[in-house]
Amino acid sequence: MLTDEYRYKILKLVEAKPEISQRELAKNLGISLGKANFCLKALIEKGLLKATNFRNSHNKLAYMYLLTPSGIEEKSSITLRFLKSKMRDYKLLQAEISQLMQEAKSANAVDKKLDLNSQEAPQF
C-alpha cells in the first residue's frame, strides 16, 4: 500500500524534477527500484501522474512524469495531512523531551545528595 508519506515525497520529487528516473527516485526515497516502479504505476493508475516518453541525453527511451490537475490537488491535500501528522509527532516529542528533562533533573538532584552524603565522614 502506498502511504501518504511516500505519495507526498514522490509527488514532490516529480514536481521538482519531471525527468527523474525510477532509479534516481528509488535512491532519493531509500526504496528498491521495484517499489519505486510500483508506486509510480499506482499514482499513474489513480490519475495523479502522467508518464510521457522522451529521449534523454544518452539517447535511451525514458519517461517524464507530470502531475495531473488532480495530482496537484492531491499533493496539496497530502501536504496538509502530512504537516498535521508531523506537528502531532513534534508535540508528542516535545512532551517526551520535557518529561525526560524533569526526570534527569530529579535524578541529578538525587545523585548530588548521594555524592554529598558519601563525602561526609563515616559515623561510628
UniProtKB/TrEMBL annotation:
Recorded coiled-coil stretches: 83-110
Ranges annotated as spanning the membrane: none
Keywords assigned: Coiled coil
One Pfam assignment: HTH_24
Protein name as catalogued: MarR family protein
